[in-house]
Amino acid sequence: MMTAAPRGSEPTTVNVALGDRAYDIVIGRGLLATLGQRVAALRPSARVVIVTEETVADLHLKAAEAAFAAAKVPAARAAVAPGEGSKSWKTFEQVCEAIIGAHIERNDLVVALGGGVIGDLAGFAAAVVRRGVDYVQVPTTLLAQVDSSVGGKTAINSSQGKNLVGLFHQPILVVADTALLDTLPPRDFRAGYAEVAKFGLLGDAGFFAWLEANWQDVFAGGGTSGSFAREHAIAIACRGKAGVVARDERETGERALLNLGHTFGHAFEAAAGFSEKLLHGEAVSIGIACAFEFSARMGLLPQSDAERAVRHLAAVGLPTDIRDVPAVKTDADALMELIAQDKKVKRGKLTFILARGIGQAFVANDVDPAQVRTFLAEKLARA
Ligand SMILES: NC(=O)c1ccc[n+]([C@@H]2O[C@H](COP(=O)([O-])OP(=O)(O)OC[C@H]3O[C@@H](n4cnc5c(N)ncnc54)[C@H](O)[C@@H]3O)[C@@H](O)[C@H]2O)c1
Ligand SMILES: [Zn+2]
Fold first, then answer.
1. Does pLDDT of 2 surpass 70?
2. On the chain, which terminus has fewer CB atoms closer than 10 Å, C or N?
3. Is the minimum distance from the CB of 138 to ligand 1 under 6 angstroms?
């Protein structure tokens, strides 16, 4: 699956092959400046409304507006508070009203400028305002560039759980400017990197080996080798996600593989109260470690492969054990309860994404909860 390296300053394009809803993900350093002309080329004479949040607006809204002005695309704006709290009914209503107030009509566009929170919120608003307008994703976090901006899942949170209200609405274009990540706090970059490593671990051993050798350049991002490495990592991860989404848009099968590390991870996130104590990507890193270690314990995978997966996540500074995060207190019974809440237990069995090797994840539908509990209890007890 490793493909030719992106050349020099030429952006990389990944197509999401969804028939008449197909779209491009364009990846490269400095692409924000081309946003207006790209949108104008795709949808001549459209107006746009940029939906963003205050942190991103302070850093990057001016440049986005300048890009639209340069291409003579009229651009209104709507900025909400940063953070997961904005994936709420209240903020959703505000965003819908702002889009309508900006006189966005059926042929116009919503532009989501921000991380996964803004992508999910603005995408959902675009899906329902005027019975649906098209939208463009301009992801500004690593997590959003490799994961949430691709695939068309949009949602807000219910008081009863995350992402429970939303629908599938594919964007018509994703513009991932890797330079926007230069302002991202290192902790957020690292958390997003867990999803990058996930793509290697679930289906692309060659990519994982490349990450082991080149992750420092991916983190550095600048200069010739850094720009290349970051763009390459994002492009390969996007290509992986685009392929899965094209084959299984509605997650009836293969798309579930993208949940590698997420069943365990969600339980840790819930144990942390979905708070700053543990970011999503950090929880996923611990979850991936669990999935590989559990697979090894079940005799599905050589112990050395599990160790290799964990070693890489730890090398970049991600937690790989919930005890790496002392602020989060939990035990095996509490985690099992959270796993059971998160996943429907079918005839007493759980579904997990497990692995037969690096790059060989599969959907295991018949996991015995008792074995998971024993695994977690022993892991948490180990000194
Ligand atoms: N739709 C999907 O398929 C999908 C997939 C994965 C995650 N998600 C959702 O994505 C959300 C998490 O996304 P996220 O991690 O991007 O969170 P986020 O959007 O909250 O961004 C993380 C932090 O980075 C800041 N930030 C964003 N861009 C920045 C930049 N360029 N410079 C400096 N700071 C910047 C934000 O203000 C925020 O504090 C969750 O709500 C999750 O449910 C959706
Ligand atoms: Zn995730």
1. no
2. C
3. no
Residue nearest to atom 21 of ligand 1 (CA): 115
pLDDT reported for residue 339: 93
CB-based contacts of 158, cutoff 8 Å, min separation 6: 164, 165
Mutate to test the pocket of ligand 1, among 141, 156, 174, 175 (most ligand atoms within 8 A of CB): 141
Query: Position 145: which residue type?
Result: Q
72 tagged catalytic: no
Say if ligand 1 is within 6 A of residue 144 CB: yes
Closest to 58 measured CA to CA, from 118, 113, 98: 113
Does the CA dihedral 119-122-127-133 come out positive or negative? negative
Phi then psi for 157, rounded to 5 degrees?
A: -95, 150
Mean pLDDT of all residues in 303-307: 98
CA–CA gap between residue 305 and residue 180 (Å, rounded): 34
User: Does ligand 1 have an atom closer than 6 angstroms to the CB of 330?
Assistant: no
Residue nearest to atom 18 of ligand 1 (CA): 115
CA distance 291 to 301: 11
How many other C-beta atoms can be found within 10 angstroms of the C-beta atom of residue 135? Answer: 30
Q: What distance in angstroms lies between residue 258's CA and the mean position of ligand 2's atoms?
A: 8
Short-list 301, 294, 290, CA closest to 266 = 290
**Of 169, 198, 241, 379, which is the active-site residue?**
241
Task: Please indicate whether residue 166, judged by its CB atom, sits closer than 6 Å to ligand 1.
Answer: no
Residue 7 confidence (pLDDT) above 60: no
